[in-house]
Each structure stands twice: as structure tokens, then as C-alpha cells.
Design a protein that fits this description.
Blueprint: E1 11-14, H1 28-39, H2 44-49, H3 70-96, E2 105-109, E3 112-115, E4 118-121, E5 127-129, E6 134-137, H4 140-147, H5 154-173, H6 175-183, H7 188-217, H8 224-234, H9 237-245, H10 258-271, H11 283-290
Parallel strand pairs: 1-2, 2-6
Antiparallel strand pairs: 3-4, 5-6
């Protein structure tokens, strides 16, 4: 992906602040389970509230100094470019709908950070918190995306951000709260399918961003779309479940299969049409689609 775009002013760099406080015990096995839980669609507020909140910020209000490598700073700069590009995509889309786009903040952290959804740790992976309209990411996740999940490349990284911004769009549209309310009123299997609908729409929105970003600013380079599709495939429910437990349970899917996630991204990328990413229009149609 081209890196000559503008940088967003909506990035909050809190790296070096959270540190190791609030670390979950149990070793790497627990960390993998928590990462998979978030990638498979666990509600951030529910997962984060299960973590003992042990601070994360110094009580005297001082900010610890930290030195980052050139590679880490380059990655932080890239995140800012991607976020700016999502802003440059969604602002005109909202204007065309005669609406104002509220730009989300993106928080970079290391170790752990306090969000409005609870205390977050890097092992939990990237997530969107609707309570404060912020995307949270520890850049070390990108190393895991490459090494553990086999999804390298800068466009794979961009896809992750665009997907989380997709959840922000759902929050602004009221779709996120609607689905979460319905999930609390139905059985677990239907609730899971409702979650899949949300996640696939966020993937579609990520593809829609790639479509408009490339058409307006030519950001997509050869191989970029393959990187995004590979990332979507590697974090599909069926792929992750098979890796974690050796078998697949479709009724427990919360993000969608690898094939579904790839198709959702391509729907947005090929159409560039927000309507193509629509999932349901009412409580009744949402439940009908999930059952």
C-alpha cells in the first residue's frame, strides 16, 4: 500500500503507558485463547470486564518515557496513514447521504490500556469500543498476524484497521446496538449468527474502503488485495477453530467462515456500494436472517 498519504490527527499514542499491569496468568496458552476469543467476535466489554482492572496508568499522572525502534515508529506512522485514508473515504460517503461523519479515534498502546469498555491487554488483539468510539490496537498484534496466523503484509494490517472502522460505521448507524440488543433476547446459536452478520458487514465495509481509496487515491498496489483476502481467510472461524481444537462447530461461529469473510470483503471492494453491505432493516428481518 502506498505510504504517501496524509496522516490522521485522530491517533492517540499511549504506547509505553500500560506496561505489564493487569497481566492474565496462565502463560501463552491463555494468551492464544484470549486472542481467538476477540477475533471470533467476543463482546469487548464482556471480555475486558473479566480482566482484573489493576491500573495501567501511574497514579501520579506522569507518563513514562519509552523509546521505540525505527520499525515500530514506521508502523505507527503507517497506522496513521490508513486511518486518515478511512476518514477520506467515509467523510464523502456520509456527505452524499447528507450526514456528518464522526471520525473515530485510534489508540496505540503497549501492554495494556484503559478503555471505556474496560481494561484492555495486548493479548486481546485489536478491537472497537462503541462506548468511547475508539479503535484500540497494540502494534505487536501485527507480528502475531504475520507469525502465528500467516497473514503478512501492510495491506493485511490496513484491512484490520478498516474492519474495526467498519464497526464504528455500524455504531453510528445504530446497527451495532440493535444487533447487541437482539442478541440478549434470543438463544445462543441465533446470537452467534447475528454476530456473524455484523462481522461480515464490517469486512464488507473494509472492502468498500479499499475500493474508494484506490479509485480516489490509487493506494492499492499489486498483491495488496491478496494480502487482505489472506488475512480474512486466516482469521475465519472455521480456520481458527480447526487450529485451536481440531474440529469445526458452525453453530458457534461469530465472525463467519474463511470463505464468507473473503466474499464479504470482495463484495465491498468490487461494488463500492454501501447498500451492497446491508444486512437487515428491522428486528424481524435481522432475526429472520440469523435463523
Amino acid at each position: 500500500m502506498r505510504r504517501d498519504g496524509r496522516r490522521s490527527t485522530n491517533v492517540e499514542d499511549k504506547r509505553g503507558i500500560g506496561g505489564s499491569k493487569g497481566v492474565i496468568g496462565g502463560g501463552i496458552g491463555v494468551i492464544v485463547v484470549v486472542v481467538i476469543a476477540l477475533l471470533l467476535g467476543a463482546d469487548p466489554s464482556a471480555v475486558l470486564s473479566s480482566v482484573t482492572e489493576q491500573g495501567g496508568y501511574p497514579s501520579d499522572g506522569t507518563v513514562p518515557t519509552a523509546t521505540f525502534s525505527a520499525e515500530e515508529n514506521e508502523m505507527a506512522d503507517f497506522v496513521s496513514i490508513v486511518l486518515a485514508d478511512t476518514e477520506d473515504t467515509w467523510n464523502p460517503i456520509f456527505r452524499s447521504q447528507k450526514r456528518n461523519y464522526t471520525e473515530p479515534k485510534l489508540v496505540l498502546f503497549s501492554g495494556g490500556v484503559q478503555s471505556a469498555c474496560g481494561y484492555a491487554q495486548s493479548a486481546m488483539g485489536p478491537f472497537y469500543c462503541p462506548a468511547d468510539q475508539k479503535v484500540y490496537i497494540d502494534l505487536s498484534f501485527y507480528q502475531s498476524l504475520k507469525d502465528q496466523y500467516g497473514a503478512p503484509g501492510d495491506f493485511a494490517q490496513a484491512y484490520v484497521i478498516a474492519h474495526e472502522v467498519g464497526h464504528h460505521i455500524q455504531n453510528l448507524d445504530g446497527k451495532l446496538s440493535q444487533i447487541q440488543r437482539l442478541q440478549g433476547q434470543t438463544d445462543e446459536t441465533t446470537a452467534n449468527r447475528l454476530s456473524v452478520m455484523l462481522e461480515l458487514q464490517a469486512d464488507c465495509y473494509a472492502g468498500l474502503w479499499a475500493h474508494h481509496a484506490n479509485r480516489a487515491r490509487g493506494v492499492v498496489e499489486p498483491g495488496d488485495i491478496d494480502e487482505a483476502l489472506n488475512a480474512a481467510s486466516k482469521i475465519g472461524d472455521d480456520t481458527l477453530q480447526k487450529q485451536a481444537q481440531g474440529y469445526v462447530v458452525p453453530d458457534s461461529f461469530t465472525h463467519g467462515s474463511s470463505a464468507q469473510r473473503k466474499q464479504a470483503f470482495m463484495t465491498g471492494y468490487q461494488s463500492g456500494d454501501v447498500a451492497a453491505c446491508a444486512i437487515c432493516t428491522s428486528d424481524t428481518s435481522c432475526l429472520a436472517a440469523a435463523q
